[in-house]
Structure formats: structure tokens, C-alpha cells
Design goal:
The protein is 56% helix and 13% strand. The protein is of the alpha+beta class. The chain has 4 domains: 73 residues, no CATH class; 151 residues, Beta-Lactamase (2-Layer Sandwich), CATH 3.30.450; 102 residues; 134 residues, Heat Shock Protein 90. The strands form 2 sheets. It has a 5-stranded antiparallel beta sheet. It has a 5-stranded mixed beta sheet with strand order 6-7-8-10-9, covered by helices on one side.
Length: 498
């Protein structure tokens, strides 16, 4: 299967490098965005901006209405235009900049505009839905609701304070009534009533400056911060990658049984702590393996000593006695001496057979390249040739199993057949191997003389050794025997396919 072309970038060093670069770039962008946002908010939320809207909208009305009161038609047309389109440069007697014009046009477009004389009579209105109101007293409560009487009184008195000339509405807008005069020294000639809504967030007049600043910072980030973050991430992660790679090499050596490889990371950080913990674990594991190997060798030596004592030593001693008797009778009774010699020869043949069985058990397991079923067939055939006992092997559901399970069951079969040859006086034995999907079951059954289970010493090396081997892999051993009927040894292990 072909690796993804991006697989290289999934390695730890590249991931850390990209992370450092992304964090550096992201930090610069976020900080720049925060700075620009704060600057815009500061520009919009200043109190002066609200009053700038009051001042410049009032200036727009004051620079026009006092000079149009003598021409009602022109005044009406001018008020209609301002209500719909707002102020333009020509509405001011002195030149204004774009910001001043923006402040003047904070009046709510489309909202009603009323122009009153000093006695609060209507001289112009937009929209003029009822021409009969011209010249009539202005009904502020009917036109604009509660709260306008006080601002009308302040405007009529010529009060110049903005908070007296305006009233805040529930939607955040202001209704203002500004007294208008040609100059500050002239009397009030008219009162303009309209609605102003200062914007909480508005595009600042120097928006291009903020935009250019953000673009400059972004370019600087991509040209400097991003490469610097990438280089820093590469250098930091390079050392980290080498340290982890060294641990991986050592762990690979340990997995093959080579504990001579040792990590050499002596730093005091978390990876150094992990290295020292793994080194300690490797030492303990090596000690445990050596201890188990030594115990296995001791167990095998004890079993071999018992087998040699129970069979070869006894038979050798009996052969010696037969030879001694034959030597004493060779001069006086050659016939009887020949009988003793024949007995000695038979004992020698029995000893040779026992030695072959022991040698077969000491040979390396013949499992490699064969599997458990085939190894049992081969061993049973050779065992039958040595013992003269007919052996049958039956396998059901042959399949591969874990190596440790194969080795244990193979040794159990060897031990069980060895016991049959030595103690059972059987002439037939059957080895049945049932390899189910999740369980492996081995049965060794003979037609020998059987024995009393209660008469077996608790420390019997044969049965105890088989049980210990099976217990190490979670298996169990059962022994069923009846006198003059035979013995059945059942070994069972839970094992799925490897």
C-alpha cells in the first residue's frame, strides 16, 4: 500500500514546526486585530463624537434656515432635501472636512424635521402631509410624543447647553430642538426640531489608515514571524525527535532480547525521566528472564534426575546383578549363566530405550515450520518406534495457534506419553487434538492398568510440571484414571488464532 504524500509531515518534528509557525502567525494576527478593534472602538465610543454630531448638524441648519425664513417655498424645498439626502458641502458657509460632514449627517434620514418661529409656530415641516399646520402653533406631544416640551422651552429661551436641547429616546436616538440665529449676538429667529442617532460603531474617517496598518503587519508576519516560528519549531523539535528516535532504537533492541543497548538521555525533563524508568524496567525484565530460565533449567534437571533414577539407574543396577550371577555360574552351570546373561541383555535394551526417550525430550522442540499437529504426529510416530506401543493421532480443526501455547501442549504430550511408556503397561494410546476457534484441547488416553490418584505423591514432578506449564498460559489439566481400564490426561487452553 503506497504511503500518503503527506505522511512525512505527520512526523513529530514537522508537526511541532508547523504548530510553532501557526501559533506565532496566529498570535500576531490576533494581537493586531485586537489593537485595531480597540482603536476603532476608542474612536467611536468617545463622548465628543456624540456632541460633534449635535454641533455640526446644528451648524448645517443654522447656516441656512435663518437666511431662508423670508422665502417659505425655498425653505420648504431645502428642508425636504436635507431630510431625504442629508447635508452636503454647499450647506455650510465655511469649508468642512469629510469627518465634519459625517458628524453633521448623524441625523436620522427620513425622520420628520420641523422648523418653528420663536413663538413655536410651524413655518416649515418635512414631510408636509398637512399644509394647514403652517403658521399654526406646534403640537409637540402629538407630533413627537412625551418629553419634548422641556427641550422646546430651552430652545425658545436660547439655552445653548446640548443636554437641555435634547432628549434621549428608547431606541438610543435623540430628539433635539436647536435655537437658530444668524450670529451668536442676534436673537433667535427659528427653532429646528429633528432626530439624531449617534452611531455606536461607525467606520472611522481614517479607516484606510487602519487597513494599511493591518496589511503591513500581516505582510511582516508572513515575511518574518512565520519563518522565525518555523525555524524555532524545527530547532526545538529536532532535539526532541533525536531523543525519541534513540529510545525507539533501544526499545527495538530490547524486543529482540538484546539488553546490552542502553539509552543515553541524561536530561532532567519528562523524556529523561521516561528514559530512566525504561532502563530500570529493562534491568528488572532481564533479571526476571534470567531467573525464569534458571528455574526452567533447575526444573528440567530435577525431572531428568528423577527419570534417570527411576529407570536407567535401577535397570543398570539390575543388569549388574545379572552379570555378577552369570560370572559366578559360568564355570559350574553354563546354562543358568546364559539365562542371567540374557536377562542382562534385556535390561540393557530397556535402558537404551529409556535413554532414547529422555534424549528425545531434551532435543529442541520440533515445532518450527510444522505446527503443533504435525509435530505431534512426528513425535508419536518416533515414540511408537521406541516403545512398541501403538499410537494414534487424531486432529480436529487444524489451525495455527500462538507459539507459547504450541510449546506447552507439545511438552505436556511428551510428558504424558513418557508416563504411558514407563508406568501404564498399555499396548495402545490415542492422542487427540481439538483446535476450536477459541480453545485448544489435548487428550492423551491409554488402555493401561491405571492408578490411584490419591496414591500419587503431591510433589510428583510429572503431573506437577504439566500443571505448572499450563498455568503459565492460563490452561488447565485434568487426569481421569481407572484401575485395569486406563488413564486419560486432558489439557485445555483458551487460545484464538495468532
Amino acid at each position: 500500500m503506497n504511503a500518503s504524500p503527506f505522511a512525512f509531515f505527520s512526523r513529530l518534528q514537522w508537526r511541532l514546526t508547523i504548530s510553532y509557525a501557526a501559533v506565532t502567525a496566529g498570535t500576531v494576527i490576533v494581537l493586531t486585530g485586537i489593537f485595531v478593534t480597540i482603536a476603532i472602538l476608542a474612536d467611536n465610543l468617545t463622548t465628543d463624537r456624540t456632541y460633534e454630531g449635535f454641533y455640526w448638524s446644528k451648524t448645517g441648519f443654522q447656516d441656512n434656515i435663518p437666511f431662508l425664513t423670508s422665502d417659505p417655498a425655498t425653505l420648504q424645498a431645502w428642508v425636504d432635501r436635507v431630510r431625504v439626502g442629508g447635508f452636503d458641502q454647499n450647506d455650510f458657509q465655511t469649508p468642512v472636512i469629510a469627518k465634519n460632514l459625517d458628524d453633521a449627517n448623524t441625523l436620522v434620514r427620513g425622520a420628520p424635521i420641523y422648523v418653528l418661529d420663536p413663538d413655536l409656530n410651524v413655518i416649515a415641516a418635512s414631510p408636509l402631509t398637512d399644509p394647514t399646520i403652517i403658521g399654526e402653533p406646534f403640537n409637540g406631544r402629538a407630533a413627537l410624543g412625551f418629553g419634548v416640551e422641556s427641550v422646546l422651552e430651552a430652545a425658545q429661551a436660547g439655552d445653548k447647553r446640548y443636554y437641555s436641547q435634547s432628549t434621549l429616546q428608547p431606541d438610543g436616538s435623540y430628539i433635539v430642538a436647536f435655537p437658530l440665529r444668524a450670529t451668536d449676538d442676534d436673537p433667535v429667529v427659528a427653532i429646528a426640531i429633528y432626530r439624531v442617532k449617534p452611531l455606536a460603531i461607525a467606520a472611522p474617517t481614517n479607516l484606510s489608515l487602519y487597513t494599511n496598518f493591518f496589511i503591513l503587519v500581516a505582510l511582516t508576519m508572513f515575511c518574518t514571524a512565520l519563518p522565525i516560528g518555523a525555524v524555532f519549531g524545527w530547532l526545538v523539535s529536532r532535539g526532541l525527535r533525536k531523543r525519541l528516535a534513540g529510545l525507539a532504537v533501544v526499545a527495538q533492541a530490547w524486543s529482540t532480547g538484546d539488553f546490552s543497548a542502553q539509552p543515553r538521555d541524561r536530561s532532567r525533563d519528562e523524556i529523561g525521566d521516561l528514559t530512566r524508568a525504561l532502563s530500570g524496567m529493562a534491568e528488572q525484565l532481564q533479571t526476571l528472564i534470567h531467573t525464569r530460565d534458571e528455574l526452567a533449567r533447575v526444573e528440567e534437571r530435577n525431572r531428568l534426575a528423577r527419570d534417570l533414577h527411576d529407570t536407567v539407574k535401577q535397570q543398570t543396577y539390575a543388569a549388574r546383578m545379572q552379570l555378577s550371577a552369570a560370572r559366578n555360574l559360568v564355570q559350574t552351570d553354563s546354562t543358568q549363566a546364559a539365562v542371567h546373561l540374557e536377562s542382562a541383555l534385556q535390561l540393557n535394551r530397556d535402558t537404551q530405550q529409556e535413554l532414547k526417550l529422555i534424549i528425545d525430550e531434551l532435543r529442541p522442540a520440533a515445532l518450527q515450520g510444522k505446527g503443533l499437529a504435525q509435530a505431534l504426529r512426528t513425535y508419536a510416530e518416533r515414540w511408537q518406534g521406541h516403545t512398541g506401543i501403538h499410537a494414534t493421532v487424531v486432529v480436529n480443526g487444524e489451525r495455527p495457534v500462538a507459539l507459547d501455547v504450541e510449546q506447552v501442549l507439545y511438552r505436556v504430550a511428551q510428558e504424558a506419553l513418557s508416563n504411558v511408556a514407563r508406568h501404564s503397561d498399555a499396548d495402545q494410546v490415542e492422542v487427540a487434538l481439538d483446535m476450536g476457534p477459541t480453545r485448544v484441547r489435548l487428550v492423551v488416553a491409554d488402555n493401561g492398568r491405571g492408578f490411584e490418584l490419591g496414591a500419587v505423591p503431591p510433589g510428583s514432578l510429572g503431573l506437577t510440571g504439566m500443571r505448572q506449564r499450563l498455568a503459565e498460559i492460563g490452561g488447565t489439566l485434568e487426569v481421569e484414571t481407572r484401575l485395569s481400564v486406563g488413564t486419560r490426561v486432558v489439557a485445555q487452553v483458551e487460545s484464538s488464532a495468532p
